[in-house]
Amino acid sequence: MSHLGARVLLAPMEGLLDHTLRDVLTRVGGVDLCVSEFIRVTNTVLPRRAFIRVAPELLNNSCTVAGVPVRVQLLGSDPDYLAANAAALAELQPAGIDLNFGCPAKTVNQHRGGAVLLDEPELVGQIVAAVRRAVPAHIPVSAKMRLGFNDDSRAEDCALAIEAAGASDLVVHARTKAHGYRPPAYWDRIADLRQRVRLPMVANGEIWTLADALRCREVTGCDRLMIGRGMVADPGLALAITQHDALTQGGAMQSAVAWTQILGLMRLFWQGIALRVAPRHRAGRLKQWLNYLRRVYPEAQEAFDQLRLLHDPEKIDQWLAAQAVG
Asked: Any idea which residues carry the catalytic annotation?
């Protein structure tokens, strides 16, 4: 169950790409594997409900409704507590356990989580090794890292430590914490890492279009890509990548999903939000997604303008119903 054949992976994005959006995006097709948002581990072993809250897919054979496997991501800095939580999580039979060495959030880094650990390759290795030992062999243990914290001078050390500790595969977001999400992504550094590390590697960062995906594969040498914001902006991107041979004839920059389908996905998303999000926050979640969709769909700009001042869920219900009729 290593999922090494997975070609397109859906990235976790704290506060954006959660269970509800995973469900919607994986229905489009083209995504082979998802990773959940991180579950923070401190000095306790979390109850089952803490894992299920972030990854309700655990109740569905660790798959989305569309049948796409979901790995569950843990974040922390204590090898023993991470191992104990991984063992507890393993009882729920996740499609894999991923370890977060990439989160750039200041509050997370101040509490020794995420990208700040990339200054301590030895600790990174100890964490991966401890989790690997604690989890049954059939459950993959993977890792996601950035190129470093303030600079990329220890990227090779971290990747080598992750490999030596027994990880099944490694996602590399081709920026440091200091780079944040500013373009460009330094894909050539992933190619450098692949010269040193035999561990199966997944390239991540700044993949917005089919052309980006093809160029990233060429530069990094990675067959497999992880996409986050690019999939939120263009839900058909994974599908376009898997069908790229048919699309290269003049269609490389065009989404594989029509706006009418996006409206259907938005209604599904809105229904999912209604089950999980307080009424006062629901409109914000829909506008957050529309804000990304504006990059690809002119109709999303029009929708955003119409909804911008609406906060009442009932009014948004009415708007979505009117789109279905129109």
From this structure: 103
